[in-house]
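quick one, 66 residues, struct below
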Amino acid sequence: MISFPAGDRQTPMHMHTVKTTPYDILRREVSSAIWLETSPDLLTAKSRIKEIASFWPGRFEVIDRQ
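---
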């Protein structure tokens, strides 16, 4: 189905889709990394690291899958 703006029945309304890139959250160990979870965006990943670090201190990384 195509949507048209009010008053204009010849030009379809442009729909914009926000594409998110998944980010992996890792906890770094001495010689390895532990995958913890995937986050839908960078802001959420940073927030999750703060939450996780509050009960499991350590060094964390966020990896962009692209």
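The chain has a mean pLDDT of 82.
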